[in-house]
Design goal:
This protein is mainly alpha-helical. It has one domain. It contains 6 helices and no strands. The protein has helices spanning 10-29, 36-65, 69-79, 81-95, 98-111, 130-137. The model has no long low-confidence stretch (mean pLDDT 90).
Amino acid sequence: MSRIINPDSSSKNRARLARTVVLAVRRLANQTEPGTESRDIAAYIALALDGIAKTIDSTVGPWEKRGYWVKADRFRMDWAWTETCSKKMRRSVLDGDWNSVAEAAAMTASKLSKITISDGNRLGEPWKGAWQVLSDKG
């Protein structure tokens, strides 16, 4: 029997979300005044960071089965910031605290500073409608 390969693995999903978060942080930094698009972008960053945090356990599960405890713990520590930053961003966006949004965006940008995105990317604008999704989740 051949191996089944999942094209939507956790690592690919995490990498895609990380690239879109970097793009969103850049766009948010270019905003001059908080508005509808700024709200959408900040809400998307919160949702995407939460999505990244949810991929961690599925990634380290196979490592723990094989006894690679140190590797799994190091990976968890490397990505632990996503959950706290996501919560901070979510709380700040829902409260309309743009100073905290800027702090969370800066922290996110510093953590994801190694990710490069070309000017001709095909990521689009995934943050469209994210404010509605975030406010529905409450």
